[in-house]
Amino acid sequence: NQDVLAFLGQLSINGMIGVSDVSDYGRLVSSNYGLTWSPVRPIQLIASVNEAQTPPAIALLTNPTVTTPNTPFFDFTTGTSVLVTTIAGGNPALAPERRRIVTLGVAVSPIKAKDLRLTANYLETRIGNQTATLGSATSAFQTAFTDAFQRNPAGQLVSADLRPVNIARERERKIQVTISLSTPIGPAPPPQTPPLGAAAKDGPPPATSKPRPQIYVSMTTTWRLDDRLSLRNDLPALDLLDGDTLTGTGGRPRWETELNLSGSLGAANIGLYGRLQGPTRIHSDLAASDLRFSGRTWLVPYASLKVDQIVKRPWTRTMMLQFTIENLLNDRIDVRDRLGRVPNRFQAAYLDPLGRSVRLGLRKLF
User: Fold this and answer.
1) pTM for the full predicted model
2) E strands along 39-114, which residues?
3) Quick check: 28 and 14 in contact, CB under 8 A?
4) Angle at Cα 69 formed by Cα 63 and Cα 72, nearest 5°?
5) Domains of the chain by residue range
6) Gap between the Cα atoms of 174 and 123, Å rounded
7) Mean pLDDT in each 10-residue stretch from start to end of the chain (366 residues)?
């Protein structure tokens, strides 16, 4: 822009560092720096590094301890569902999380007159001291956190401590591809020509043009190349893409897609949000604990109406009517073991009690 090495195109470099002092944790440092290079107009190359130290949420530290008897719980080491006493609450010994994200990407805007953008990013994320809640009694969890699971002399699981813990480290590599478009529909209104002379003084104000419909389309697809997690530094890593789990309700899907289609005209806005994900699996030598989790298609149509643009009254100012259908297809994850059975606690109603739900809301800001 300043005619310095102009043949290289546009080049910008940015950086930021922040230091915060947090009670009980001392100084936590965050930083990010990046480079953006546009060799020619429609192409932009991006590289960035983001590092952050984040203290645990207050609730994770201070929530009261709650003991609940007779809670259904799946024991992966025996392949059975049992009733246990669960312990939930805060953990004041949690350490701050360390997260480092490296991003390499390219963005293309092929049509100059349209807000159409194609983006492809490679992201590598490393997390240390991640806060997680143990959601199941896998053999890996019981090895890493022996005090969290108690058994009676017969070997039956009787107690599970589900208070949050720190996970040693996780490394995830993935590719994200996004396409987005935002544009009005129809020809642009002709420019208003102001009247001249006496007509400008005595005539009516010029008519305002009708608003044009506006559409927005966005779709992001993620492919996970690798996702490995170590519960403790002295234990082997778990492969969350190939049979291991952190939550007990499946691993990480190798692919997932999010889409958003919306349109607006005047006071009305209507759209569709969707999230699709592939199947996952939890490997086990026991047939009853070797679980397959189906993929899922989650669709949410929604609509909103600005009431004050329809009913012009003082009491309708900042009032909005909203309508949403959550999980339009009533699609729930289906869980089967190696023998084709649905384990107790993994029925669809346990994993997703609501299913399809319809919501009608009226919101007003005062």
Assistant:
1) 0.85
2) 43-54, 66-75, 80-88, 97-108
3) no
4) 100
5) 23-186+212-364
6) 5
7) 69 93 91 93 93 94 95 91 94 95 95 84 97 86 91 93 94 97 79 60 62 90 96 93 90 95 92 96 93 96 92 86 96 94 90 93 88
